[in-house]
Amino acid sequence: MSRAALDTALGPVWVEARDGAVVASGWGEADRAPADPLLVEALAQLAAYFADTRQGFDLPLAHGRGGLQGQVLDALGAIPLGETRTYGDLSKALGAPAQAIGQACGANPLPILIPCHRVLSATGLGGFSAPGGVEAKVWLLRHEGAAGLLI
């Protein structure tokens, strides 16, 4: 297992790789000079995403979750850039309570790479795990062109 980080508009973001796949990401410091080619590529793609020169990620991701949480993470990964869904939308699609959908979003092991920030509550933004919470979520949605949804 190896972990590396880069500075972003939201502060340092790290990614972790194991067995040829990115298995986790999060907020905070890690190695700044990774030797793992997958981590080098993951950081390059994240840097391009934050520089607005890349709209998605082409990385082998392995969230390692089964059951409903795995289904939710897969559904999050299918939400196109610039679009959002509500917890209720995912609840109907997956046949699970909206609260369970929210809990699965909150336990996302790969934030940004699996876009849990694209899920909103029916009446507001919902929560977000990044430092700055909802402000970081708003930044990401604006960055992705979903700002019209916030006005």
From TrEMBL:
Gene3D superfamilies according to UniProt: Methylated DNA-protein cysteine methyltransferase domain, Winged helix-like DNA-binding domain superfamily/Winged helix DNA-binding domain
Reaction(s) the record says it catalyses: a 4-O-methyl-thymidine in DNA + L-cysteinyl-[protein] = a thymidine in DNA + S-methyl-L-cysteinyl-[protein]; a 6-O-methyl-2'-deoxyguanosine in DNA + L-cysteinyl-[protein] = S-methyl-L-cysteinyl-[protein] + a 2'-deoxyguanosine in DNA
Domain (Methylated-DNA-[protein]-cysteine S-methyltransferase DNA binding): residue spans on this chain: 69-146
Name by which UniProt lists this protein: Methylated-DNA--[protein]-cysteine S-methyltransferase
Organism from which the protein derives: Roseicyclus persicicus
Keyword DNA damage carried by entry: yes
Keywords: DNA damage, DNA repair, Methyltransferase, Transferase
Molecular functions per Gene Ontology: methylated-DNA-[protein]-cysteine S-methyltransferase activity
GO biological process: DNA repair; methylation
SUPFAM superfamilies: Methylated DNA-protein cysteine methyltransferase domain (SSF53155), Methylated DNA-protein cysteine methyltransferase, C-terminal domain (SSF46767)
UniProt cross-references to NCBIfam families, sorted A to Z: ogt
Record has Disulfide bond as a keyword: no
Pfam families: DNA_binding_1
